[in-house]
Amino acid sequence: MQNFDVVVIGGGPIGIACGLEAQKKGLSYVILEKGPIVNSLFNYPVNMQFFSSSEKLEIDGIPFISKEAKPKRDEALEYYRRIVTSNNLNIHLFEKVESVTQEKKGFKVTSSKTSYTTDNLIVATGFYDLPNTINVPGEDLPKVSHYYNDPHFYASQKLAVIGASNSAIDAALECYRKGAEVTLIIRGPEVGQRVKYWVRPDIINRIKEGSINAHFNAEVKEIKERELTINTPEGELALENDFVLALTGYKPNFAFLAQLGVQLSDDEKRLPQYNPDTMETNVKGLYLAGVICGGMETHKWFIENSRIHAKMIIEDILTHSNP
Ligand SMILES: Cc1cc2nc3c(=O)[nH]c(=O)nc-3n(C[C@H](O)[C@H](O)[C@H](O)COP(=O)(O)OP(=O)(O)OC[C@H]3O[C@@H](n4cnc5c(N)ncnc54)[C@H](O)[C@@H]3O)c2cc1C
Q1: Cβ within 8 Å of residue 133, ≥6 positions away
Q2: CA 303–ligand 1 middle distance (angstroms)
Q3: How far is the CA of 232 from the centre of ligand 1 (A)?
Q4: pTM of the predicted structure, to 2 decimals
């Protein structure tokens, strides 16, 4: 069993920022990451382009140079990977945290490989692991996915994309441009208002001209091997279908937060309780960092506005002089 001043769960951009800050301040620390470095970004669509410009994704002021103003996924992988390797960060990859117990003093963290003790635990596990399911028969068929990767896969196929936000709209446009026959199924009356301002007119015009089919105020009722049934204002429709991308958003692991003793709001937002000045939760010594802080409001926090959590947390840890 090893002891560290700080244990960080999650090696995403914000977990890495926390480790880097701990290192700079002379604290012993380990980052535990269940996948590769920045696992969520690694699993984003291959052609994904960030909505933030590169300087807004920088951590600790380390310059992020990208070809265009808004970097692509592979440039972000390069940037965060280089931060880890150049600074020799103490990150244990492919090591999942399975449980955390509160000890008399601090925490015992048990991973898939070993156990650690610490007085200060930072949870930076993001929200990309758990998709919002649509809970209809057939959702578990192999042709249904909650993650979109590469448009080539869907060429010449009848693809239904469920959702109205950035992930769904990006996937619909890309797949249409690579030869898929795309149908969008949107629960509300319009394409999401938060869709990137330079992408929204594109999708609206593709729908208007009939290049992409769209059903508004529509919900999926059932998914079958060759067909999809949807409820629309005009009644039930059966659509021929080869693949379904259900891109209806993601949510933090609330069960894990509850297991840690972090209080969540009773409403549908399920906001975790923490002090916004220090990021410490209602559990002493347990901090939240990054996009996990938004509960179900996953659009509220992103790299851009949550990268400051690292400095806030490490400063608070040093103030308490727990170590
Ligand atoms: C398609 C898409 C585009 C986006 N574009 C932008 C953008 O342009 N600008 C912006 O600022 N933000 C953007 N975001 C939001 C932001 O990039 C991500 O949410 C970002 O990855 C958040 O960083 P994080 O470190 O808080 O969480 P994550 O990057 O999700 O990191 C969490 C890490 O925790 C690990 N983990 C989870 N559970 C465990 C466990 N039990 N044990 C060990 N490790 C665990 C995961 O594997 C993951 O690597 C985008 C998000 C998406 C989905």
Answers
A1: 139, 146, 246, 248
A2: 8
A3: 34
A4: 0.95
